[in-house]
């Protein structure tokens, strides 16, 4: 047995002897005469004579060397895969940031008002997706996103981006702690962006002041509710969102119903309110929680 291992096992054995307890599942590495290292799993019970004197231990050693080497190989492969996944998220986020910069640059120099508005909308959508990637990269869990933390950062970011407009528009957020899979988090971010931006642009014409409310609630099991409402002018009575040819409404209904396994309800009274009920039960984990650099890559996709 190597010196460092001998000292480690010696300390453990001293404590066991002092308490006269059993030796349970004690892993220890030995070195055979030919220099080969083997891992033994020791289980033993104390042998006590009629005078209540501890005479020694009786037990068995099980050679678990091959399983230990296999475990080490798995851990090494997992660390490599985890590093690659982190790098992929990092590169994806960087690419999105480059696209945001290009759209912003073009929008800032264009004299076409319609083109500038389209580029601004695309930039906001890319920002929403980029924040999901950021939350994943910063997290120890590469499958799940904290939607409360995401929403809080998103709202802070957009208010900084167009600070002059937000001076007259107040955002009130009431958010439950909700964690959802990445398959739900990305469309969630896009929908949240569409609804908040729609309220900012259309709910308060002529520089009127107003309030946008963002509520996120957790229901039973994997069911959630996102409510985005305002106290603005609302929609015209003849306007039908589902029949509208605007990209924003099409995107909201399409994402909620087709990707988030949910439904969207609209109330046009004292302003506009969207209630979105969704679930991530149609998906399962891509990568398990990564604690202390360990994790497990799983099969992934839609149920």
Description:
With 303 residues, the protein is an alpha+beta fold. The protein has two domains: 3-63, Beta-Lactamase; 71-289 and 297-302, Heat Shock Protein 90, CATH 3.30.565.10. Helices cover 46% and strands 26% of the residues. It has helices at residues 3-19, 65-109, 113-138, 147-161, 163-166, 182-202, 247-258, and strands at residues 23-31, 37-48, 54-63, 144-146, 169-175, 179-181, 210-218, 223-230, 263-268, 272-279, 283-284, 301-302. A five-stranded mixed sheet has the order 5-7-8-10-9, covered by helices on one side. Strands 1-2-3 form a three-stranded antiparallel sheet, sandwiched between helices. It has a two-stranded antiparallel ribbon with strand order 4-6. A hairpin with a 5-residue loop joins β2 and β3 (54-63). α2 packs antiparallel against α3 (113-138), α3 (113-138) packs antiparallel against α6 and α4 (147-161) runs parallel beside α6 (182-202). The longest helix is centred in the first third of the chain and has 45 residues, at 65-109. The protein is elongated. It starts with a helix and ends with a strand.
Question: Could you give the topology of this structure?
Answer:
Layout (H helix, E strand, L loop, with lengths): L2 H17 L3 E9 L5 E12 L5 E10 L1 H45 L3 H26 L5 E3 H15 L1 H4 L2 E7 L3 E3 H21 L7 E9 L4 E8 L16 H12 L4 E6 L3 E8 L3 E2 L16 E2 L1
Parallel strand pairs: 5-7
Antiparallel strand pairs: 1-2, 2-3, 4-6, 7-8, 8-10, 9-10, 11-12
Helix pairs in contact: 2-3, 3-4, 3-6, 4-6, 6-7
